[in-house]
């Protein structure tokens, strides 16, 4: 038994500005992705997973958990995140399964399609797709968001999942699972996340429409909605520095979540045990907000 109040660091945190997309290894404190704690029990033995944004944060926690549950895992990330990706791959391979790193920018439709084709070839199929990569940059006013910035966020958070899922669906057999990372921002947007928050409303929405569309193929589609989680996305401009210092304080638990605290949700949604769950959003908000 562990008390959720003091299981992990609480604010105040140090100011720590990193350039986008940031690295987990340079955060203070370093996030917990389950490296030391996650124990598998063969729940995903023989499964084949592709996780975008699998180098750090929530995607890394899912990658480590999937590997320890027996799945082969491919992660995608940006080339400048190689150092984080190397750590994840070593954890995946230490679990005795395939761990493959495919860097590349998801804003390219061609890259997204190649990523899926390569994943299918390397793994001999695909049955878990975690659409998790995203861009979040806090901006005080809509008047300060350039067209280029707006396009960057929309391409990463809305177009890329479309391109990837569209390419993956023909390969997904009955029993496969698509999981998208959405956000508390989908339903409770912050003033400084005008662009990002609307992409998460789109994510929550497509989880519902796709789940209806793909049910007849035996493919389930669900979403995970994190609250404030201690990851590089936040430390590299996702929140203003003055908010990072108090990060997570507004939740009922009074602290940010750690990526490791979401891993079991991703496992449950991928596992065939969860076969009656589709079109649902599972949240880990630390209390105080609706899913
Ligand atoms: P993170 O920075 O660890 O992960 C985001 C990843 O997205 C990066 O590691 C990067 O590899 C990937 N990415 C971004 N742009 C990309 C591009 N153009 N091409 C390829 N990869 C790209 O942060 P995280 O918080 O773990 O984010 C994971 C998901 O969780 C995101 O969808 C985010 O919106 C969501 N989320 C996070 C929080 C939070 O507080 N951290 C809250 C709600 C939702
Ligand atoms: Mg990263």
Write up this protein:
The chain has helices at 57-68, 82-94, 109-123, 147-168, 194-214, 232-238, 241-244, 263-270; strands at 48-52, 72-77, 99-103, 128-131, 177-181, 220-226, 281-284. By secondary structure, the protein is of the alpha/beta class. It has a single domain (41-284), classed as NAD(P)-binding Rossmann-like Domain (Rossmann fold, 3-Layer(aba) Sandwich). The longest helix has 22 residues, at 147-168. It binds nicotinamide-adenine-dinucleotide and magnesium ion.
- Top-tier CATH class: Alpha Beta
Unreliable spans: none
Largest sheet, strands/sense/barrel: 7 strands, parallel
SSE class: alpha/beta
CATH 2nd-level architecture: 3-Layer(aba) Sandwich
Ions, cofactors, ligands: which are bound?
Answer: nicotinamide-adenine-dinucleotide, magnesium ion
How much of the polypeptide forms β-strand, as a percent range? Answer: 5-15%
SSE pattern, N- to C-terminal: EHEHEHEHEHEHHHE
Instruction: Using the CA coordinates, give the radius of gyration.
Output: 18 Å
Indicate the percent of residues in helices.
25-40%
Oligomer: single chain
Shape: globular
Strand order of the largest sheet: 3-2-1-4-5-6-7
Mean pLDDT: 98
Q: How many beta strands in the DSSP annotation?
A: 7
Ends apart, CA distance between termini: 26 Å
CATH domain fold name: Rossmann fold
Q: Number of DSSP helices?
A: 8
Looking at CATH, the homologous superfamily is: NAD(P)-binding Rossmann-like Domain
